[in-house]
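Quick note —
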Amino acid sequence: MSDPAEKLANLAALAEPLRRQLYLYVSSEADAVSRNEAAEHFAVPRSVAAFHLDKLAELGLLEVEYRRPPGRTGPGAGRPAKFYRSASEEVAFSVPPREYELAGRLLAEAVTVAEREGVPVADALSGSARKVGRSLGERARRVRDSEAASDDTGDDEEAIALEVVTECGYEPEVDEEGVTLSNCPFHALAQDYRDLVCGMNLELMTGVLEGVESGSEGEGHGGRSYLEARLEPTPGHCCVRLVRREGTKSPSDAPGSAIP
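Predicted structure written out below.
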């Protein structure tokens, strides 16, 4: 999942009319486009075309390759020219954040597992979502542990979980009782397939908490996460809420702790 700020910067770069036209032109061509070809196509100086093409490449919207233009061979052919083609990675941005690619991957894996093992798709989806969530939690835990060891693992554990759900687009809001997920990244799907998507959300969040917890060696909470995922549908929010276990506090209550 890419940084939303980075995605927004990439799309903002396309607001410039000529740059946007160059991007669409290169993306529509079957072969890579040279600076000369782009300049001739839009009747602009080569330096202008080169500036915008390089900016698009710098932002990752275009890919660059080098080769000699057709007809130039041998020692005197000069250095290879710069060519541009559409980047292999898709560019998409939505407000509020949506993660339909993640939903598609989870559903595709669930169908595959269901056919292979002869189980209901809904059961397979629960397992797939939980496995992916756990993987995300474990990865975030490893990254945090590699950066610095925490003296208060429980509070640190909750902060890591908040980082993960933020990256997934859930827009968490912390209160005394737990965490409200203000946004559903699978909103459009949830409108038509609420039970299926809400169950997927629940298992994904449960997996995240398990993954973050699995790397914890803290004391005082019996090896359990400080948060628990529960189905608590609320209009305008995700159907899942992360509830703080009895006797635990918000990370903001702990000295030196921070909520992302």
